[in-house]
Amino acid sequence: MTFLRNLLGRAKNEIPMLVIPVGYPSHDCKVPKITKKRLEEILVELH
């Protein structure tokens, strides 16, 4: 995946990787409540 590192202009010592969690959480795990940002918070308009 060095093409991605080169495309993004990252350092040679950085290696892009994908982590896919599988399985089910334990019954006593604490999961944070995550909310989506509103469109107005992330939208960038170019004119």
Q: What can you tell me about this protein's structure?
A:
The chain has about 45 residues and is an all-alpha fold. Helix content is about 25%, strand content about 0%. The longest helix has 7 residues. The two termini are about 35 Å apart. The mean pLDDT is about 90.
Fill in the keyword field for this structure:
single chain; 47 residues; mainly alpha; 2 helices
What is the makeup of the main sheet? none
- Count of beta strands: 0
- Helical region count? 2
Strand content: under 5%
What's the SSE pattern? Answer: HH
* End-to-end gap: 34 Å
- The average pLDDT score comes to 89
Helix content, binned percent: 10-25%
Shape: flat
Low-confidence stretches: none
- Kindly provide the radius of gyration, computed on alpha-carbon positions and rounded to a whole number of angstroms: 18 Å
Structural class, please? Answer: mainly alpha
Strand and helix layout:
Blueprint: H1 2-8, H2 39-42
Quick rundown:
With 47 residues, the protein is mostly helical. Helices cover 23% and strands 0% of the residues.
